[in-house]
Amino acid sequence: MRELEERIRREALAVLPDILRVDMFLNHMIDPVLLEGMGEEFYRLFAPLCGRVTKILTVEASGIAIACATARRFGVPVLFAKKGLSNKTLDKETYTSVIHSYTKDVTTHVSVARRFLGADDRVLIIDDFLANGAAARGLMDLVDQAGAQLLGIGVAIEKGFQRGGQDLRAQNIWVESLAVIAQLQPLLFREPS
Amino acid sequence: MRELEERIRREALAVLPDILRVDMFLNHMIDPVLLEGMGEEFYRLFAPLCGRVTKILTVEASGIAIACATARRFGVPVLFAKKGLSNKTLDKETYTSVIHSYTKDVTTHVSVARRFLGADDRVLIIDDFLANGAAARGLMDLVDQAGAQLLGIGVAIEKGFQRGGQDLRAQNIWVESLAVIAQLQPLLFREPS
Questions:
Q1: Neighbours of A51 (CB within 10 A)
Q2: pLDDT by residue (tens digit) across B18-41?
Q3: Confidence of residue B192 (pLDDT cuts 50, 70, 90)
Q4: What is the ipTM, given to two decimal places?
């Protein structure tokens, strides 16, 4: 997606060895025009899923905005996995998995309420980054636990120099990325596969 | 806002003494149609701010979706305050405040990067709940620290039986709520003031 690549090129900060900071338009401040464009592009890429997908699954916090922009076009709800252990405002009955963030070097529990994800659901996962694939695998685990069907995974930015995307595609999972970073410094993009 | 009141009436769960669970359409699963309606309604209520507001400020995670739906209409960026202390993907230079959540009984640091909020900014705060006003005051503190101007506060659901809304309005802060709960059980609404 050209607009996203241009924003990354112009504004993002590479923090070696492998962090790309996009807090100026995606992860802290959010540009609503870019956001809408990203929702539209996911809708275009995953067009065959229209009418089949029943839920967009993401994880708080920075996946929520992109998931909502996408869900609006598919006309289905967003379900965002909560981080941390359950609290008073969430169901006791949850599916729970674990995500290790290499970027932040922390391990986080993520969970969704069982009553919001079931065997009838056909799920599109949407998230901001795909690097090692840890977040995607945590969300896929929630989909599995619910007996739901995974239809695809869409990420805004794929770190093509890490293994996540490659491994998921090797499992025949439909993965779409709006921008793929081939290397951070100097910044090089690669065509999405 | 009639649609929001109806959804609360039909689906929300009151957990006494003072918790209202709206995780089925707002705080965990998000209905994109309701979300768009909420963005439209905030735009209508705060119409005089159009062209003046420069940023929508909220706090992760459940404020993000509503803030984005509102920001799209005003054509300005969302800035969402991060919870917890700073991490590798965020600036070191932040404005930081503290929010005590009575619902969850935890105290959380919230922060925004200094370079995203400045003396030129005119800010509309958008959030999901207003109860004691702790979250609103934490965000207002960030606006103050930045030397920015607060134009108003919009919340989806105000717990009218708690003091937050009353106290803020007594300070001549422009507060709009899409639904005001007068009491939880039996559930009663009150006209937004």
A1: 9
A2: 899 999 999 999 999 999 999 999
A3: confident
A4: 0.94
Q: Which of B18, B64, B83 to mutate to test the interface with A (most CBs of A within 10 A)?
A: B64
Which residue from A minimizes the CA distance to B13? A89
Q: How many CB pairs under 8 A join A and B?
A: 116
Would you give the end-to-end CA distance of chain B in angstroms? 12
Task: With beta carbons less than 8 A apart as the criterion, state whether B13 and B28 touch.
Answer: no
CATH numeric code, A2-190: 3.40.50.2020
The residues spanned by each domain of chain A are 2-190
The answer, yes or no, to whether the previous bond of A17 is cis (omega within 30 of 0) is: yes
Which distant-in-sequence residues (6+ apart) come within 8 Å of B6 by Cβ?
Answer: none
Please tell me which of the candidates B31, B76, B87 has its beta carbon nearest to residue A104: B87
Residue A144 predicted with pLDDT over 60:
yes
B166: which DSSP letter?
H
Q: How far apart are CA B142 and CA B133, in angstroms?
A: 14
Interface with B, mutate which of A24, A64, A82 (most B CBs under 10 A): A64
Output the DSSP codes for A54-119.
-EEEEETTTTHHHHHHHHHHHT--EEEEEESS--TTS-SSEEEEEEEETTTTEEEEEEEEGGGS-T
Which stretches of B1-133 are DSSP H helices?
2-11, 32-45, 64-74
Contact by Cβ (8 Å): A127, A155: yes
Using DSSP's 3-state secondary structure scheme, residue B12 falls into coil
Q: Residue B76: how many CB atoms within 10 A of its CB?
A: 23
Does the structure show a pLDDT above 90 at A97?
A: yes
Burial of A57 (0-12, 13-18, 19+ CB in 10 A): buried
